[in-house]
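RECORD TYPE: inverse folding
INPUT: structure tokens
STRUCTURE:
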């Protein structure tokens, strides 16, 4: 007999407790599940005994190995192999790059060969492995069933082979009869191909140069960290004995190579993203097509303080000298920014920044800001020449370009915006060089005296506190899209795509895996630093990496939009307008793609600002809004079946003054023309949610085309144009539903 000791508590469940146990002589570790059946019903006792018998009967290289089981009084003890490499979720969390197809096929083949698996559930697992996100992320059973029956499981990314995508699609077919069996799957490609030429997981990882933290000290499933982090156990079980025969049988199976044991993946393990390359000296462009960088040799100012003489001096030298001094108080910070902006328009006191730091913080918090956070922001800003080795292009009107930056680079640019170092960006007066770009320097934010200025500044400083404590190692891409050809809306024969709607939640919280709509201005962020906080402003303060788009994105044209991929959420906020409030830190758990982007994509589309209710139904206004929404929804590079849903809401309503029924119809029509489905968030308006689903059902059941619906909206305009009263007698939904089929 071998004697073991319970050393750590691994976890608890509704029916039992799991311990990590260790052999007193050999230090061999096992997992022990204990089930107290003292007060259990006969059914519960039978279930527990059945579990032990089931494990005893399973002997497969891809099933956790059973060791022994017996009763100790009224407690059932089940001994099993301890999986010291962590579970699949931990492995996915450790993964920096996309899971290689060979590794995916290897795992799926192992599961299919080991069990008579639930094929639909296994299909969901396959989707999660390949996408890094859950197939369905719903807690409510009703919503879960609704999504399964209506939306279904999204297709596997096109980066994987056609055969794997076909297999995945069949596995999650809504009809059970159409789903393949395990034997059918194993006899078809790509699983049959793998069976003919099998490989070990570690070999695949090394061959594909798979980037992961698994098997390293940084791994979330690192066994030593796991053991050190668990609670010590004073075992209530006394001596834990396992028969030598059971252990011998278990060890014999292990020696046959039942499992690949975890080890350091030295050749492929690395940090999430390598640091930016060293700067190539003097790689600078000072022209109308690139960002004018603060560290550029041509960023000069007229210096008349040199002992009575006057000359041009490099502003970066001034910035470096000024910021490398200590900051004793807010006056020092204000003075430093004013010195940096010699000959520029920044000469006012930073009322809102001063109020936030002195009136909204304790003396201890203020000291922490001045001695730690502020110097860290300074160091981040001054790293500009070493983090950028080539100029940043401007995303000018009409240009189909994209910019990819590391999160470290974005943070550095934002730190320079904090100190207002970007040249020629402190004025948006007509005829000024950057009058068609949003402001980027934070002087406007520091002077904002609106009710919500404290909350805005809190978001920004929290972001800097986070990134200076631990810099995120990912990437963000900003892409300007220009559409050359639009549908002929009144002639379009396309039917409506699918629609779901919810009155609970927000676009950012409910839109994981979907294309998320930002209710933008033609200048990204609009008057971001001043007064009003709408949906887009709130999103930018929660995700400050979106703010940097203002540095290089020219005002959006009628046929343009901006995509932002990989922006991380740093703050939890609530409310809009005068109720906008910072609630606390938020850890963004969205998975990253193989390039290091958070798998969040946001599209900024700007609606018209409506001053007259009837005018928005005019044909030119209607077509403009249809084209703008279509610009944001269209993606000609991806097959329609693989396009993610669009998640949106009351775009163009609120401060923009649009009719929410019309704007909802416009987005439904644009999504249908772009061959995408739509998820609509009604911001707590359950009545409108019902009306929206009703009109969609009415139109879909009668097979209305996009063109016919556009014509009905035109008809509504003719109906109301001559009405003298401001508000019409019937709204556009009522008009459509009263029309003849």
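DESIGNED SEQUENCE:
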């Amino acid at each position: 007999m071998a004697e073991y000791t319970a050393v750590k508590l691994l976890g608890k469940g509704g029916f039992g407790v799991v311990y990590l146990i260790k052999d007193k002589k050999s230090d061999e570790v096992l997992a022990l599940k204990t089930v107290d059946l003292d007060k259990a019903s006969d059914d519960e006792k039978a279930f527990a005994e059945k579990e032990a018998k089931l494990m005893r009967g399973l002997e497969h290289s891809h099933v956790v190995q059973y060791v022994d089981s017996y009763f100790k009084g009224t407690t059932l003890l089940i001994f099993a192999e301890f999986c010291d490499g962590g579970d699949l979720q931990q492995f996915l969390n450790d993964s920096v790059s996309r899971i290689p197809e060979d590794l995916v096929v290897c795992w799926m083949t192992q599961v299919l060969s080991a069990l008579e698996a639930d094929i639909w559930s296994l299909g969901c697992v396959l989707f999660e492995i390949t996408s890094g996100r859950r197939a369905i992320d719903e807690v409510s059973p009703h919503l879960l069933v609704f999504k399964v029956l209506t939306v279904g499981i999204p297709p596997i990314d096109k980066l994987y082979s056609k055969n794997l995508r076909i297999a995945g699609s069949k596995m999650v077919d809504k009809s059970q009869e159409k789903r393949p069996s395990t034997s059918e799957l194993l006899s078809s490609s790509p699983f049959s191909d793998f069976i003919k030429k099998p490989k070990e997981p570690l070999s695949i990882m090394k061959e594909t140069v798979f980037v992961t933290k698994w098997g390293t000290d940084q791994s979330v499933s690192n066994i030593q960290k796991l053991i050190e982090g668990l609670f010590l156990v004073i075992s209530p079980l006394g001596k834990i004995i396992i028969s030598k025969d059971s252990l011998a049988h278990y060890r014999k199976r292990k020696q046959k190579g039942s499992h690949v044991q975890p080890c350091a993946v030295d050749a492929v393990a690395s940090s999430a993203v390598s640091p930016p390359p060293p700067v190539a000296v003097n790689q600078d462009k000072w022209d109308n097509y690139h960002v004018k960088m603060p560290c550029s040799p041509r960023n000069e100012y007229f210096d008349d303080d040199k002992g009575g003489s006057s000359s041009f001096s490099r502003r970066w030298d001034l910035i470096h000298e000024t910021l490398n001094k200590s900051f004793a108080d807010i006056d020092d910070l204000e003075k430093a920014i004013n010195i940096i902006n010699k000959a520029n328009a920044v000469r006012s006191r930073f009322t809102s920044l001063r109020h936030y730091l002195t009136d909204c913080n304790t003396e201890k918090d203020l000291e922490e800001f001045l001695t730690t956070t502020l110097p860290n922001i300074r160091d981040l800003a001054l790293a500009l020449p070493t983090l950028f080795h080539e100029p940043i292009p401007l995303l000018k009107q009409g240009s189909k370009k994209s910019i990819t930056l590391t999160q470290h680079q974005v943070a550095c640019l934002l730190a320079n915006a904090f100190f207002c170092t970007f040249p020629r960006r402190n004025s948006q007066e007509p005829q000024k060089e950057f009058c068609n770009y949003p402001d980027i320097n934070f002087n406007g934010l520091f002077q904002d005296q609106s009710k919500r200025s404290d909350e805005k500044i809190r978001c920004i400083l929290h972001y800097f506190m986070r990134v200076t404590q631990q810099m995120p190692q990912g990437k963000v891409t900003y892409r300007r899209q220009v559409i050359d050809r639009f549908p002929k809306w009144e002639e379009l024969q396309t039917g409506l795509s699918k629609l779901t709607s919810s009155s609970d939640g927000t676009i950012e919280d409910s839109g994981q895996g979907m294309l998320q709509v930002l209710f933008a201005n033609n200048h990204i962020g609009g008057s971001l630093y001043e007064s009003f906080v709408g949906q887009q402003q709130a999103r930018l303060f929660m995700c400050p990496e979106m703010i940097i788009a203002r540095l290089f994105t020219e005002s959006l044209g009628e046929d343009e939009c901006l995509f932002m991929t990989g922006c991380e959420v740093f703050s939890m906020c609530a409310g809009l307008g005068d109720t906008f409030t910072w609630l606390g830190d938020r850890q963004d758990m969205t998975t990253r793609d193989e390039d290091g982007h958070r798998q969040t994509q946001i599209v900024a589309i700007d609606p018209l600002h409506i001053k007259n209710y009837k005018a928005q139904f005019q044909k030119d206004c209607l077509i403009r809004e249809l084209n703008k929404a279509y610009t944001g929804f269209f993606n000609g590079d991806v097959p329609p079946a693989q396009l993610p849903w669009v998640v949106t809401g009351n775009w163009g309503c609120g401060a923009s003054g649009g009719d929410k029924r019309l704007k909802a119809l416009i987005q439904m029509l644009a999504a249908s023309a772009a061959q995408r489905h739509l998820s609509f968030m009604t911001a707590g308006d359950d009545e409108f949610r019902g009306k929206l689903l009703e009109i969609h059902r009415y139109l879909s059941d009668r097979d209305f085309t996009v063109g016919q619906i556009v014509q009905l909206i035109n008809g509504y305009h003719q109906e109301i144009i001559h009405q003298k009263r401001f508000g019409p007698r019937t709204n556009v939904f009522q008009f459509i539903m009263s029309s003849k089929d």
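NOTES: The two ends are 82 Å apart (CA to CA).
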